[in-house]
## 1
Amino acid sequence: MKYAKIFTLRKPMIACFTALTLLSFSVVPVTNAAEKLEKPNLKLGFIKLTDMAPFAIAYEKGFFKDEGLNVQLEAQANWKVVLDRVVSGELDGSHMLAPVPLGASVGFGAKADIITAFSMGLNGSAITVSNDIWKQMKPNVPVKDGVVVHPIKADALKPVVDLYKSKGKPFNMAMTFPVSSHNFKLRYWLAGGGISPGYYAPPQDTSGQVDASVMLSVTPPPQMPATMEAGTIFGFCVGEPWNQQAVAKGVGVPVITDDEMWKDIPEKVFGVNKAWAEKNPKTHVAVVKALIRASMWLDADNNKNRAEAVKILSQSKYVGADEKVIANSMTGTFEYEKGDKRALPDFNLFFRNNATYPYYSGAVWYLTQMRRWGQINEYKDDAWYIDTAKKVYRPDIYMLAADALVADKKAKAEDFPAKTETGFKPEQAYFIDGVAFDGTKPNDYLAKFAIGLKGKQVVAGGKVTGE
Amino acid sequence: MNNKLIKFFNLAGLTWFVPIVKICAGDNPTQQIRQMWLIIGVPIVAFIIFLSLWSASASRINTSLGAIPGPSAVWHEFGGLLDEHTAERQKEQEFYQQQLQENQETLTKDPKAEVNTFVYTGKSTYLDQIFTSLYTVFTGFILATLLAVPLGILCGMSETFRTALNPLIQIFKPVSPLAWLPIVTLTVSALYQTSDDSWFDKSFLTSAITVTLCSLWPTLINTTVGVASIDKDLVNVGKVLRLSWSTQIRKIILPSALPYIFTGMRLSLGVGWMVLIAAEMLAQNPGLGKFVWDEFQNGSSQSLGRIMVAVFTIGIIGFALDRVMQTLQNLFSFGKPQ
């Protein structure tokens, strides 16, 4: 009767059981009402990517439990499902692409009020091209002492794209979601090399291929290597472990990682429904506390825990990819061309550099990119960008959790940004194309790009119009 | 006695045992052994040939996840999944024990304190997922039957009704579950509000309703045909006797249409099981479909083997379900197996 318990659970029985237990406990008076969480049983969603690590660690290391939470983690099929289920309330919160709550707030795609008080990490993505494209690209890439010089700019790809264009063949690349960090990073890289990634023209045209030299489309992250192997796409931008997977399977070559393109890009966030957050403020803070501790654990003592984290993530219920594939990027190294493994200590940051703090400036950067490519197809003034960012990114809630951790002596005050933090990082200049970004002046920033909407320009009738 | 046994085995679909019973009863052994070879030996030989062909060809196909696993690798993965199941159950028990212990400690300190009664949230194991799938498919199937049989009887009894419904049936019958799913998902999300202790998950309802929508049609059509083709004399006798509607249905229509209804239900369950896997993949209902999808996403070196285990599980369960339905069908066909 080893498997006698297989008939256990399933909702109706759980419901009956909890009803019974609730009855039996309802006579017990509530004593510590102040400590009581509104909703201790939570279901959090994630996509199988290494940057879901704070969830897995908070679960496995008991950080959720320490906060009095009983959390169920559930892998989701794709980002669209994630967003829909957070909106519908099937999930209490989820691992989300950093720009998704912004997109939902602006109303590109589905309109919904999603907020985030926790950034799940910085960087961690890369752009990979297929072996065949790499072969054509490689002669254009500078070489020093016999090795390829990184970071590689899209200038090296431009002749290849032009060749395809002259033959009348489409050059297809993939990203993970229209409002994904990957879409914007891929577009940023391509445009930096003079390749037009195409515009969106909502509400009529949401394909994002108006006036495009490279056709971008959506592919779910885990299918990227397989789709590239099938020849449907020539390159993609995605989080780990799928770039390293492509290298391990010998189907493609990563050309640039995002921390070489713009250091410390907010990558994923922990997103919750605004209504949920208003109804469950203590629970929300408790989750953020557990996640902060998990991120601290991940980055503690110079990444010494990463090997253990890799082991946890390789379980089939979490990321599930082979341990050595996950280890490649999680342990501070990155393999480009097969055998060309380099040190990349800041790829996949979980806590260092205030990685968990939801900076307004990160949100504004994404909003500028949404404007640049026509997802926001009208002029907005600087105040609008800043207000939208402040509506969605909520460092105030983050600081409540941080203060509570300091009070619990589980963290030190200097681990977190100072109380005077404005939420705007000073002007950042480490972009691959050298264009500096100041989060308080989004329209000035947009005006600096050669390719992209600026000022009052709009996309209409299949082309860019206006001054 | 022997005849009864043989009849039982034939009815239950266990025809393998019939020759053995016959030998025991003293029938001509050579003839019976020939018969046995035909119904037991030949399928086994064919299966062995299939396994060796599979084993020989699998290692030659290299995918990006490594070679296609052969039979032994799949068997190995199956063992691994069972081990995972036991390990997970162990963890579950430990979780409850620890919770109990902690609660007792809190209560001894402060008898009025409120204690946690959390439900274990570990992953659902492969066996859990099989049972979720069965539970989902049967919910969908029962819903479909409850809808299809009354509708079918109405269609069979009234020609006007039949003509009215016919275009709808013809249009919706060929629709794939993948087309229904988005509509069902959105409708369920809009109409069904879940809370912490709701009986059903939305994903469960979505999958079950999709199964219903796809498996409705065979039962509906077969019931219609069955009811429509009842001997007119019987119906007329009913009219002469001035039987009420309900008595007519119970005494005349249902008994004569039952064989058809069961044939329809058997087809429906088959369709439902097939559709379920696709529905679960997209609705993320934690059953076999989600298992296959998650493993595909994992893309680890074990994934292909595990998906193969799922393929065999789905096949074997489908086969077993069909056999059960066939037996029911035979039972209700009053001795004329179809």
Note: The first strand of chain A starts at residue 41 and ends at 46.
## 2
Amino acid sequence: MALRNMVQALNWALRQEMARDERVVVFGEDVARQGGVFRVTEGLLEQFGSKRVFDTPVSEAGIIGISTGLALAGMRPVCEIQFSGFMFNAFHQLGLMAARYRSRSRGLYSVPMVVRAPWGGGVRALELHNESEEAVYAQMPGVKVVIPSRPRRARALLVASIRDPDPVVFLEPKRVYRSLREEVPDEEEVFPIGKAEIVRSGRNLTLITYGAFLQECLQAAELAERDFGVTIEVIDLLTIVPMDTRTIVESVKKTGRCVIVHEAPRSCGIAAEIIARINEQCLLYLHAPIARVTGYDIPYPFFAREHAYLPTIPRILDAIRRTLEF
Amino acid sequence: MPRQPLVQFQVDYLQILDENGRVDAALEPSLPQATLLQIHRCMTLARLLDRRMHILQQQGRMGTFPSCYGQEAAGLGCVLALRPDDWLVPAYRETSALFYRGLPMKNVLLFWMGLEEGNYWSPQLRVLSIPILIGSQTLHAVGIALACQIRGSDEVTMVFFGDGATSEGDFHEACNLAGVYQAPVVFVCINNQYAISVPRCLQSHSETLAQKAIAYGFPGIVVDGNDVLACYVAAQEAVQRARRGQGPTLIECLTYRLGPHTTADDPRRYRSEQERLQWEAKDPLKRWRIYLEQRGLWSESQQLELERELLAEIDAAVRQAEYDLAHADPLEMFDFVYAELPPDLAAQRREAAEHVAQTDTVSASARR
């Protein structure tokens, strides 16, 4: 076991899968010679050569389009979009084409590709480098959406994504790329797509989140236990699509209270979908309305104001308190 | 029915003021003395501000920003050909051109300090907001040009983008649409040889980027982008053509980003110091100063005086910008999403107000 950050863990997963399966190819803007702007693909060019690791022109639709073609022809492409906000440039390729090949060819063709992208805000980055647009992919049936929160699961989920038979959008919370270290076992690990994880168990309230905000949620849970004398169950969603409804519902049945935290805008966001599922499956177990702590329904602000936009521990605690006191 | 050449094309290269400051008298445009000095002032200011912004960034007083070091001539040279009522659609390294156009320094500072207010300036400048998404602005420029065409005015739109942008679909759709509608637009590609780490030769297999215009049915020309005069002359031709209703032109300005892509980049990972030094010898400011000195318009003492003056202006602008940053209301982020604040967003604004009141102001967070 060694302590690793998420960048190292992801790099490890890529190396391992490239060594294991020669169909895996890695490409994108600045991924080869530069090793990626966040260095996730560092050293891959040297180890696997320029046929399997290559730089592309500035061409997001091109990247996802050729990735689709590579996958259709039996390769296992793992492409990178430099910042997830740039994915909007490739939406027709992702949402209208890659997502639909299996369905529209009745299984004759499929697109086993992974689109990796640094995602989310909180790093004082420039405009359009902070987007949290996962709900948009959730409206692209045929695409799976994975968002790890910590190094160990990030590695195991990337391995699962590369081996998955369908297109996976793999969003990496750049705020915790290097700020968080975790023990990652030496042996191979695969964590199944579609499975959430209870990372802290409790009886009085279910706190659901994903991505970088898992850290704030864990801290808020600890503070809530100290200040309010309750125990909080924290669920790390890990996969957005297909969502692990069962884990959520079982927890809410037990606690009767729920707060959901994400940095994406509120309306029609992932929290709204979780609330709908809880309403459908365990409404009568609820003791209080479900609270959401999210970004607001505004364009992600330039970085001088991002602190006022993103959820904070006080905002999460406030929502926990209101839900408990209802 | 023999096989025979059907279409042939040609792309010219234009240089007027070479890297040693020698000028081709036959091609030299006649610009008023005041303009020649103004060019010098704007390029020098852009360079000095760039250096200051690097220091501010290292001190945590500025965000990540893309330096324009080495590229001060190209945008400015092209913009010289515009009338004040023509539209300017910049990319994000056209600082010197923006200054020539009259954009306040404070705007540039605020933009890279992370405030949308940086993009707010007089509408009379006819300068579109600084874009971040590569190549996206090329289509907006064609739309603006079409608006001028539809209204029957003779205004021209000039749009800037980099070598990397020519790989984006938006650029190709912009060129095609501009060609089809014969829109009065001038496309200016500032080819600084790198899109972050990816060199020009891996961006496109075309011998020139200018020749991409040919495919869309309009002319393209390559100019020495470190030569203000060549940029100006090529832009003047293109602007006149557009104004006469003869459609778009693509100008490729060959230059070099002497600094990193942004303050977050380390160019030593992907290019040699030797290459950088070769381009440093072609510095646009050096040759411009020689040009002015040869005309008896400039001296060492004037240079020192100008730099003193500009540094004082920079100090003042930084003070103003930091004052604005410290007094910016975080809640203003709600106020420009729509023309009118919808009721549910107003409720979110009130919710945010409670939390902001508990915490801090923009500047306190910026200092974190």
Note: The two ends of chain B are 76 Å apart (CA to CA).
